[in-house]
Amino acid sequence: MKILIVEDEIKTGKYLKQGLNEAGFVVDLLHDGLDGYHQAMTESYDLLILDVMLPGLDGWRILKSLREANNNVSVLFLTARDSVDDRVKGLELGADDYLVKPFAFAELLARVRTLIRRGTSSTSELILTIANLDMDLTRHRVSRSGQRIHLTAKEFLLLELLIRHQGEVLPRSLIASQVWDMNFDSDTNIIDVAIRRLRSKIDDDFEPKLIHTVRGMGYMLDITGHNS
Prior knowledge:
Blueprint: E1 2-6, H1 10-22, E2 26-30, H2 33-42, E3 47-50, H3 59-68, E4 74-79, H4 84-93, E5 97-100, H5 105-119, E6 127-130, E7 133-136, E8 141-144, E9 147-149, H6 153-164, H7 172-179, H8 190-202, E10 211-214, E11 218-221
Parallel strand pairs: 1-2, 1-3, 3-4, 4-5
Antiparallel strand pairs: 6-7, 7-8, 8-9, 10-11
Helix pairs in contact: 2-3, 6-8
């Protein structure tokens, strides 16, 4: 698997490259935004890790230009810009994930593996549909009854997992491993909170209800009603 890092902080770039090399990835590292854009357009990568503030061409413009050129490489923003507006802007432009500095390398590695696993999925489906809900995997967009629904990167992954397993009850342990790349801790309510937030966005104002709680077992997405 091949990754391109565009990071103008020399120490951070070297640290990332070394860590990802040791994790088994082939990594190219550039420090200038314009060089990074040209490299991403001429070489094939499984993932692009972008800083926002870059010399030559900033990360926003790199991503916008890539998407306008129909380059759908997975993009992870890695930046000190931590405002909600910045995160929303990155995802709106077509980023797949957004990680704020300073960061734990273990978390970065988990996100990298998740994005690459999703990007190399063998499925040929680009749009997933159930009832009046449409999920466009290429454009990273979700709509219901024609109304655009804004999801975080994790909510998008969670919804995709539920749709791909429509009608199946997914235990919390499976959701934790597939979406968060972690072992399920029965003492945490991270899965329940994420489901509740996703449900508020795609179900509260629409019919039929799609996300259902199967008591004592987990969650499922289906048109038919279940325990909820």
